[in-house]
């Protein structure tokens, strides 16, 4: 079943999605988080439109919101997917129950039940913002303490 899915997913009729590249100050870009490198098994054989064999991987499709080139939020956008490719363009297809059952049979891991999207990796953009707000509050607090010590109301 995965062979058929891979052949269909990598056909020219399926649009390719790009890996998020933070090129502007505000982006809402799709991305793929690698869940598992699938073993080189015939159960995971994929063929591109030109007939060449491709290595498939299991990933998690998400969208990431970035402000000033810093990620501040990410959310699932399709869930678990099978994908192939590298660089700026990936060919992807949703991983259905049949494909996930086959992956579990070969690898022994139920990724649908055990995988959790690492949201913390996509929230670090808040740290500089919180640092600036904390610095402003600290300066204001010190100024108020200094005025209080000098008796200035």
Topology overview:
Elements: H1 2-9, E1 17-18, E2 26-37, E3 45-47, E4 53-55, E5 57-67, E6 70-84, E7 89-94, H2 97-107, H3 111-114, H4 126-150
Antiparallel strand pairs: 1-7, 2-5, 3-4, 5-6, 6-7
Describe this structure in words.
A hairpin with a 5-residue loop joins strand 3 and strand 4 (53-55). The protein has four helices and seven strands; from the N terminus they run αβββββββααα. The model is unreliable at 1-20 (pLDDT under 50). The termini are far apart. The longest helix has 25 residues, at 126-150. The strands form two sheets. The chain has a five-stranded antiparallel β-sheet. The protein is α+β, with helices and mostly antiparallel strands. It is elongated and about 80 Å long. It is 31% helix and 34% strand.
The count of DSSP E runs of length 2 or more, i.e. the number of strands, is 7
How is the biggest beta sheet arranged? 5 strands, antiparallel
Strand line-up in the sheet with most strands: 1-7-6-5-2
Q: Portion of residues in helices?
A: 25-40%
Q: What oligomeric state best describes the polypeptide chains here?
A: single chain
How much strand content do the residues show?
A: 25-35%
- Rg (CA only): 23 Å
Task: Please tell me what the overall shape is.
Answer: elongated
Distance between the termini: 77 Å
SSE order: HEEEEEEEHHH
Number of helices: 4
Task: Report the average pLDDT across residues.
Answer: 78
Characteristic key phrases:
153 residues, elongated, alpha+beta
């Amino acid at each position: 079943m995965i062979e058929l899915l891979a052949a269909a997913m990598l056909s020219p009729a399926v649009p390719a999605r790009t890996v998020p590249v933070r090129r502007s100050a505000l982006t809402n870009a799709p991305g793929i988080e690698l869940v598992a490198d699938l073993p080189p098994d015939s159960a995971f054989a994929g063929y591109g439109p030109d007939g060449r064999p491709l290595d498939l991987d299991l990933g998690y499709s998400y969208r990431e919101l970035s402000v000033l080139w810093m990620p501040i939020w990410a959310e699932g956008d399709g869930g678990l997917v099978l994908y192939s490719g590298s660089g700026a363009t990936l060919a992807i297809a949703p991983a259905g129950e049949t494909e996930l059952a086959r992956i579990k049979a070969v690898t022994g891991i139920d990724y649908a039940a055990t995988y959790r999207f690492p949201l913390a990796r996509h929230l670090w953009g808040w740290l500089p913002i919180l640092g600036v707000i904390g610095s402003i509050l600290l300066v204001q607090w010190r100024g108020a303490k200094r005025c209080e010590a000098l008796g200035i109301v």
